Amino acid sequence: MLPEHTDVLVVGAGPTGLAVAVTLAGHGVATTVVDRLPEPPVTSRAAVVHAGTLEVLDRIGIAEPLAERGLRSGRFTVRDRDRVLATVPFDRLPSRYPYALLISQAETEAVLAARLTALGGRVLRPYELTDLDLDGAGATARFAGGDTVRARWVVGADGMHSRVRELAGIGFGGPADPGESFLLADVRVDSVLPRDQVNLFLSRGGPLVWAPLPDGTVRLVATVDDAPREPHPRHFQALLDERGPARRPDRVTGMAWASRFRIHHRIADSYRAGPVLLAGDAAHVHSPAGGQGMNLGLRDAVALGDALAAGPEALDRYAADRRPLAEEVLGFAAGLTRLAAAPPPLRPLRNLLLRTASALPPVRQALAVRLAGFEPTPPSPPPSSIVRLRPPSGPLSAVLPGPEVHDRRGGSGSGPPEGLATGG
């Protein structure tokens, strides 16, 4: 049952919304989390959590349980069929998590939900937002069925088609083209490719991502001109035959699930409209190339949770700081997609440049840091500025002590988390 009042209403219980709620719970802020779906989805697009993001998640007690469940990939390899064009190692990252953690979004959500439960919170389902009245003191949210909630702040973490963003009147700019079409599947495959690295195959038809998962399946993601309504294993076998290894081809032996989706490169005109704040896909969407989408959303979430606990001035900084970071990630993802789809006359030059550049240790390290998603360190607010908007009440009233906080040098403590150089 929904409460009548709450300090923060989080709409959307995907990774971003859950991470906002966990961060707020650690600060002792009363938070209500709602989602329109009756149950959490068991399939998902995202399949990697990068080192920079793990550093951020460590501050809210999430990194270690995630690391226990995931598969640790020590390098990222760029290929043109059988030819290795670039290998980017992660073992020298400035992090206690020198790898890319391969783990499904569903597992990431499960870890976040468990942490939220441990802190006294829960997700209320199914509640679909239908209206939002904003005023100087907050917002009144209305839901299908007639329930209303009065909130001081509303967080839109409800995805690309965000109802919160729409009701708040925030534009979602981007090109008018139909967007990029993708196929995605978790398949069982006979392959000679190592099971401890992510491979990006560059092809005239577009990129193909090959990423092993902890359950033994392989996540395949590829751009296609026209994705079939109901993808079958033969579609992914055809993609591997066209873009994957040639001398010893992969063979698809089964498929756990598959989907198609279309992505537009877009970013919200603003991350804030009065008492409404946006994070994750509600604020930015882009190509999955480089595995940056969910990671950027998770970093948004922790930054927003800290800002909500710190007060209005911090919220202005959140809105001003996060949008340029999203613009940079959008440009990076678009660049990877263009690189993959270089026309045949330019492919020899592209391949030569990649091989030459990746042979230089400083370039390899710069690429590793960029893929890992490290961001500039934000200024840390003084402890006195971390205030509760009201005494805890509602779903997070039984708040336990905040998670232990670690820095990357191995120190620990409690209280407000320190800023970390983090990242996508």
From TrEMBL:
Q: Where is this region: Disordered?
A: 374-424
Kindly name one Pfam family recorded for this protein.
FAD_binding_3
Q: Tell me which UniProt keywords the record has, alphabetically.
A: FAD, Flavoprotein
Q: Where is the composition biased (Gly residues)?
A: 411-424
Query: Per the entry, which co-factors are needed?
Result: FAD
Signal sequence, renumbered to the chain:
none
Q: What is this protein called?
A: 2-polyprenyl-6-methoxyphenol hydroxylase
Q: Which organism is it from?
A: Micromonospora humi
